[in-house]
Amino acid sequence: MSQTFPRCHWAIDLSNVDFPGREWVKDIYGKENELSLGCWFWESGCEIDPIAGAEYTRDTNFRAMYGARDCLKNVDHSYETYELGFSSYIGGKRESRRLLGDIILTKSDVYKGVEFDDRCVPSTWNFDVHYPDKRFYAAFHEGDGF
Q1: Domain coordinates of the chain in residue numbers?
Q2: Smallest Cα–Cα separation from 17: which of 59, 82, 57, 64?
Q3: Element (H or E) spanning 45, and its range?
Q4: Pick from 46, 45, 24: which is nearest to 36 by CA?
Q5: How far is CA 128 from the centre of its chain?
Q6: Residues 106 and 28: beta-carbon distance below 8 Å
Q7: By the 8 A CB rule, do 110 and 127 touch?
Q8: Nearest to 78 by CA among 132, 3, 141
Q9: What are residue 72's phi and psi, to 5 degrees?
Q10: How many Å separate Cα 121 from the centre of its chain?
Q11: Where are the beta strands (DSSP E) in 4-68?
């Protein structure tokens, strides 16, 4: 059954730009169409303070998400039966604070296996840096890159 979605004139207008989920756009993994929907690359605030800019980042994410939904449903007429399920209204802070001391652990330290006498915390994940994909900057202001 077809699902309607209202026009969102307050959202970011993505009708004339490429973004993952549009029929002709490949995401960073080379996937197309619905395989790109809901992936991690829909995030913003990468270049602003994650604490002071938390509400701005959240609002930008919502404006982009609803702009994409509006574009896909009302401009491209794609995903006619898809529903919007969930979007968090609280952004994850992740690495929002940097602890400074006599020694600052670096990526190089991890890869080289440097051992410190006072080590106490194991880490089981890679350094997780998400850089904005400049292919999708067209509809955003500087610093709002997705």
Answers
A1: 1-93+134-146
A2: 64
A3: none
A4: 24
A5: 13
A6: no
A7: yes
A8: 3
A9: -65, -40
A10: 28
A11: none
Q: Per the structure block, which two tokens stand in for 52?
A: 């002071």
> For residue 81, what are its two tokens?
């039966």
Tokens of 49: 């303070």
Bridge partners for 32 per DSSP: 26
Nearest in space to 133 (alpha carbons), one of 2, 15, 29: 29
pTM of the model: 0.69
Nearest-angstrom CA–CA distance, 20 and 36: 6
Q: Which two tokens stand for residue 63?
A: 């404006």
- pLDDT band of 146, cuts 50, 70, 90: low
pLDDT band for position 38 (cuts 50, 70, 90): low
The answer, yes or no, to whether residue 75 has pLDDT greater than 90, is: yes
